[in-house]
Design brief:
Layout (H helix, E strand, L loop, with lengths): L3 E2 L2 H11 L9 E5 L17 E3 L15 H18 L5 H20 L2
Parallel strand pairs: 2-3
Antiparallel strand pairs: 1-2
Length: about 110
């Protein structure tokens, strides 16, 4: 684990996108060193971005030209942080919800 807080540059960059809508002081960034979701995959469970080992950087606001795609991935993961703090479920959460609804519908149809 390389968990770290947001850098001051990342805060400025993200504030220009998300404004006051996410709690920058409470946020951390970590590395997906177990390749959850697949090799090279970045994920954001429970509002914490776990960046791919291939895309791990110490500061996503200070990048070279070839790293703009990596910066885009970071911003994409922060969008999932925004979703988390505003009560929107993740894709995994939606699939679990869908499974429960299907199960309830099936049980309801078999109880007559």
């Amino acid at each position: 684990m390389l968990e770290r807080p947001l850098t001051s540059g990342e805060r400025v960059m993200l504030f220009n996108i998300f404004g006051w809508s996410i709690p920058y002081d409470d946020m951390t960034v970590d590395i997906n060193d177990s390749d959850d979701g697949g090799v090279g995959n970045s994920i954001t469970p429970a509002g914490v971005p776990y960046m791919s080992r291939l895309k791990w950087r110490g500061d996503y606001s200070v990048l070279k030209d070839e790293d703009y795609q990596i910066q885009g991935t970071f911003i994409h993961e922060i969008a999932h942080v925004w979703q988390y703090y505003h009560g929107y479920p993740s894709v995994l959460g939606l699939s679990r919800l869908r499974s429960k609804v299907v199960l309830i519908m099936h049980l309801d149809m078999t109880t007559d």
